[in-house]
Design brief:
The complex is a heterodimer of chains A (118) and B (185).
Chain A lengths: L3 H11 L2 H8 L9 H15 L7 H19 L12 H31 L1
Chain B lengths: L2 H13 L4 H20 L2 H18 L10 H20 L10 H9 L4 H16 L3 H12 L4 H8 L3 H21 L6
Helix pairs in contact in B: 2-3, 2-4, 2-7, 3-4, 4-8, 8-9
Classes of the chains: A mainly alpha (118), B mainly alpha (185).
């Protein structure tokens, strides 16, 4: 005995390809090709990543710095880009000093408490 | 600007360092642009651009054209410095969007600026969530206009691998946007 589900499946098997796809995706309709899906995204990314130019002041300053470094190099000195002290180093040292301070205070406080107890 | 012309200039620059200024003028805009889009703020873009050229200057004597153009060599330096920067900081960029893009749009379609600002911001946030290589790929492709082969030279992958990575990157980006309920049509 054929059920309603069997009848639906049979009708799908004999339906044209386009109709079968629509049956499979009743609410979405036909899915566009992958390339077509991504094309608008490509345009959006392109406009989000529009080229930018460096500030003129920075450009000129860096050129001067490089020229200065070149002159020094010709004179036998090697000039490298100054490496600023990293924030993490400063934070690490500060955190270490704070931890030592707290530990010292705790030790002093405990030794005084012990003295009072005796 | 041909690679051959670059190569000649580099050879001269090795003996006459003043010519390095010529190379600098040729590439500073492109390197800055690449770095800016990778770090998202002017201050760090300037700092890393400076480092890139100082490093190039100090290693110029060792540069040899082994099938990798000078531009790709510079991009590699910038790429490595940006990677170190991300590793050191482990943080999101402070300012993700300067007004450069919006200024252009304001002149064209003032009514669409607010919506566009939001869309650009969401899209940039989604791009910044991608893997570093995928971010670089998008910037080099769309902002720098490089071919898959040129990008492959910089990222150390084959042209086919870049093509495949590009497709996967767009799909990942689309999924990220869909998660936020955004669909670009």
């Amino acid at each position: 005995m054929k059920t309603q589900g069997d009848a639906r499946q049979a009708s799908r098997r004999h339906a044209p390809l386009g109709e079968r796809l629509r049956l499979r995706r009743p609410h979405w309709g036909l899915r566009p090709r992958p390339k077509a899906i991504l094309l608008p995204l490509e345009h959006a990314v392109e406009s989000a990543l529009r080229p930018v130019e460096p500030p003129a002041q920075f450009r000129a300053r860096l050129r001067n710095d490089l020229a200065f470094a070149l002159q020094r190099r010709v004179g036998g000195l090697v000039v490298e880009y100054p490496r600023p002290i990293r924030e993490s180093v400063i934070l690490g040292v500060a955190a270490g000093a704070l931890a030592m301070l707290i530990a010292t205070l705790v030790l002093v406080f405990r030794s005084r408490l012990a003295g009072v107890g005796r | 600007m041909g690679d051959q012309e670059d190569q000649e200039l580099i050879e001269f620059a090795k003996d006459n360092p003043d010519l390095f200024g010529e190379l600098y003028e040729r590439y500073v805009d492109r390197i800055y642009n690449y770095i800016y889009h990778r770090v998202g703020n002017v201050h760090d873009a300037e700092d890393l651009t400076s480092r890139t050229f100082f490093r190039a200057l100090s290693h110029l004597q060792h540069y040899e054209d082994k099938g990798v153009p000078f531009s790709a060599w510079l991009y590699r330096i910038a790429h490595n410095l940006v990677a170190n920067w991300h590793r050191d900081r482990k943080r999101r960029p402070v300012v993700a969007l300067d007004d450069v893009i919006i200024r252009g749009l304001l002149e064209e379609h003032p009514e669409a600026v607010t919506q566009t600002q939001d869309n650009v911001r969401y899209l940039r946030e989604a791009i910044r969530k991608l893997d570093p290589d995928r971010q670089s790929l998008l910037v080099l492709k769309f902002s720098e206009g490089l071919s898959n082969a040129e990008i492959g030279n910089i990222l150390g992958r084959s042209e086919g691998a870049i093509k495949s990575l590009y497709h996967r990157t767009l799909l990942a980006l689309r999924n990220e946007l869909l998660k936020k309920g955004l669909d670009i049509e």
